[in-house]
Amino acid sequence: MNAIDHRGCTVSGAEPAALEAFERALAAFQGWRDGTEAPLALALQQAPAFVMAHVLRAYLLVCSRDPRRVAMARPTLARAAALPANQRERLHIAALAALLDDDDFDVARATLGEVISLEPRDALALQVAHSLDYVAGDVHCMNERVAAALPAWSTDLPGYHAILAMHAFGLEENGRYEEAEASARAALALDPLDARAHHALAHVFEMTGRPDAGEDWLADHADGWAHDTLVATHCWWHRGLFQIALGRPDRALDIYHHHVRAGRSQAVADLIDASALLWRIDLAGCDVGARWLELADAWAPRIDDGFCSFNDLHAMLAFVGAGDWRRADRLVQALRVEYSKRTRHGTTTRLLGLAACRALAAFGRGDDLLAITLLASLPAQAHRLGGSHAQRDVLHLTMQRAVERLREAKGWTSGATAPTGASVVD
Q1: CA distances (Å), 106 to each of 29, 55, 171, 308, 349, in order?
Q2: pLDDT tens profile 15-41
Q3: Burial class for 331, CB neighbours closer than 10 Å (0-12, 13-18, 19+)
Q4: On the CB side of 331, how many CA atoms lie within 13 Å of its CA?
Q5: 250 neighbors 258 (Cβ within 8 angstroms)
Q6: Number of other CB atoms surrounding residue 342 within 10 Å
Q7: At 229, is the secondary structure helix, strand, or coil?
Q8: Do 11 and 124 touch, CB atoms closer than 8 A?
Q9: Would you call 95 exposed, middle or buried from its count of C-beta atoms within 10 A (0-12, 13-18, 19+)?
Q10: Per-domain boundaries in the chain
Q11: 95, 81, 10, 7: which is closest to 49 by C-alpha?
Q12: How far apart are CA 368 and CA 352, in angstroms?
C-alpha cells in the first residue's frame, strides 16, 4: 500500500495508523529528542512492509561514531531491501548499503544528494546527509546542501524548524555567525524545544567569543535541551567551555562531575565530550584528581575499533591525561596498522589521525618540541577529522600550551618566536 507522508513524499507499505506513528518518530529524530524507538516500533508492528520505517530504524544506528551500533543496522537494511520500494526509497537503501557494506561516506552522501534533488522535502535524507557531512568534515556541503533545499520548505510543513536549525549550524561552521543566529532563533520561534537550535546557538556564542551570553542562554533555556534530548551532555559540555572562558575552570569541573560523567556513560559521543572537557580543564590549571583514570578505562575497549579518527583523538586525550602509556602506545600501534589500509579510516589516519595522536602523546610526556612539530605538520584539511570548529580547537589549545612550556623551559621572552609552524586547524 502506498501513502503520502506529511511533506508530500510517497511512501511504500504504510497503513494510516503506521504512518502517524512514523511521523512521531521522525519528529523526535529531527528535534534530537528521545522517544524515537517506541512509535517506530509501533509503525513497524502495524505495517511490517513500511519501507521508510525500516530505513529510519537503520539510520538511527548508522548515524553513530560507534562501529558496534552501526553494524547492528544490517538486519534492518536486509529487511528493507527485500520489500517493494519506489525510486526514492531505493536510493535510501543504496545509501545505507554504501555505509554498511563499504564504509563509503562519499558514495552515501552523493546518493542522499540524489534523493534530495528528487525530493527536497525528504526530511530524513536532509538530516542524515547533514550528519554525514559533519562527520566527514565537509563544512561547505553541510551548509550548501540544506540551503539549496530551503526554498522547497515553508512554515506550514512539519519539521521546518529542524531544517532551519540544521541551516543555522551549517552557517555557523562556515563563519556566517549573524545569519546562523538568526536562523537558530527563527527555528526556536517555531519550536522552543528544538534542541538542535539551542545547540547551534551555543556554537555561535562560542565562536563569537561571548561566553557570558552563551552561559546565560543555556541556563535560561535548559527546558529546551537538558531533558529527554540526545544533546543534553553535549550542551553541558558547552556550558563547561563557557565557564573555562570566564576563568572558572573549577565550575567546569563541577559540570564534568555532575553532568558530563555523572552516569559514567559508555556511549562514544559522551566519552568524546568527557575527554574534550577534562583536557581543557586540565590545560586551564585546575586539578582534576583521578578522573582521568576512570575515563581511560572507559575508552580502553575502543582502541582497536579502527573506525573514526575523531574517536582515536579523544581516546588518546584520556590515555595521556591518565598517564596510561601502555594504552597510549597500543593505540599508536593500532593506528600504524590502520595507516596502510585502503579504507576511510585508513585515509584519515594517514592524513592526520596518527600524527595528531602521536603529538598528544609527546605533549603528555613533556616532549613539547615534538608535539609542536607534529601538530604543525597537520595539513590544512584538519577539518577532515570531523566534528565542529569548537571541538577541533583542542589541537590548537594543546599546541599553544606546548609553545608556552617550551618558551618557559628555554627562558624565551614573550616576544620570542617558538617553532610553531603552520596553523593546526582550519
Answers
A1: 23, 19, 21, 15, 17
A2: 999 999 999 999 999 999 999 999 999
A3: buried
A4: 34
A5: no
A6: 6
A7: strand
A8: no
A9: buried
A10: 1-133, 231-289, 290-426
A11: 81
A12: 18
**Residue 104: all three cell numbers together:** 563509503
Q: Are 222 and 259 in contact (CB under 8 A)?
A: no
181 neighbors 168 (Cβ within 8 angstroms): yes
Cell of 307: 573506525
Compute the distance between CA of residue 278 and CA of residue 397 in angstroms, rounded to an integer. Answer: 13
- The pLDDT tens digits of the residues spanning 261-316 come to 999 999 999 999 999 999 999 999 999 999 999 999 999 999 999 999 999 999 99
What sections of 284-425 are H helices per DSSP?
291-299, 309-322, 325-339, 344-348, 354-364, 368-377, 389-410
| Residues contacting 122, CB < 8 A, separation 6+ | 7, 9, 88, 115, 116
Given CA atoms 311, 316, 322, 324 in this order, what sign does their dihedral have? positive
Residue type at position 368:
D
Whole-model pTM? 0.93
The listed CATH number (3.40.50, 2.60.40, 1.25.40, 1.20.1300) that belongs to domain 1-133: 1.25.40
380: exposed, middle or buried (C-beta count within 10 Å: 0-12, 13-18, 19+)? exposed
Q: Which residue has the cell 562527520?
A: 135
- Euclidean distance between CA atoms 179 and 172, whole angstroms: 8
**Three cell numbers at 411?**
627562558
Say if residue 413's pLDDT is above 60.
Answer: no
| Lowest-confidence pick of 19-23, 103-107, 210-214 | 103-107
